[in-house]
Amino acid sequence: MIVAALAFYLFAGIVIAAATMTILSKNPVHSVLWLILAFFNAAGLFVLLGAEFLAMILAIVYVGAVAVLFLFVVMMLDVDFARLRAGFARYLPFGISLAVVLLAELLLVLGSGGVHVAPAVAAAPVMPGMTNIQALGALIYTRYVFIFQAAGMVLLTAMIGAIVLTHRQRPGIRKQKVADQIARTPATSIATVAAPVGEGVTL
Predict the structure, then answer these.
(1) Burial of 192 (0-12, 13-18, 19+ CB in 10 A)
(2) For a designed S-S bond to 25, which of 30, 44, 95, 127 qualifies (C-beta 3.0 to 4.6 A apart)?
(3) Which is more confident, 83 or 14?
(4) Which of 5, 40, 48, 43 is nearest to 22 (CA)?
(5) What b-and-e string marks burial along 21-56, b requiring 16 or more CB atoms within 10 Å of the CB?
(6) What three-state secondary structure class fits 113?
(7) pLDDT-based confidence at 116, cuts 50/70/90?
(8) pLDDT in tens, 30-72
(9) Which CATH class is domain 1-81?
(10) Cα(109)–Cα(117) distance, rounded to whole angstroms?
């Protein structure tokens, strides 16, 4: 119990420190690296709660895709960050007012004794000894299999739409013709040429 409490305070402290450094770092690359550290420690908190699936998703999706994408975009784009920071003072009053509203909402929730949630009813019986990932997989691929497939089709449609919208035809570029390559035979690919002595062959 003591080890779990120490691990919780360690992960939570690193998450808070990394999130603070993400905001306060002047270098955007350093901000992304602090954000990755915060994601990893948040995944550790999920593991302590017994939600291994959420921890894995947080590490794979957010760290492996989103944060790395941010890092590459920040490093590859020539963004004038001095110009972006120049308008910070102009939006400061709006940011402070928004922070005050969020703080008031948090204090209201904490002052009312927290959020009371009704006890959840298990959507499917969980076998003894079944892990969190096994129970979630058994539920998704049985009761919600059609919804899961529909969500996959929606994401596939969005991906195809993004490719179609961003694809541009570039003139003067030779495209690969797979059908012509597959249909080639030795007779159409190899030519025997009798070159005169002392002369080259021009194809």
Answers:
(1) exposed
(2) 30
(3) 14
(4) 40
(5) bbeeeeebeebbbbbbbbbbbbbbbbbeeebbbbbe
(6) coil
(7) low
(8) 888 888 889 888 988 888 887 888 888 888 888 877 777 777 7
(9) mainly alpha
(10) 13
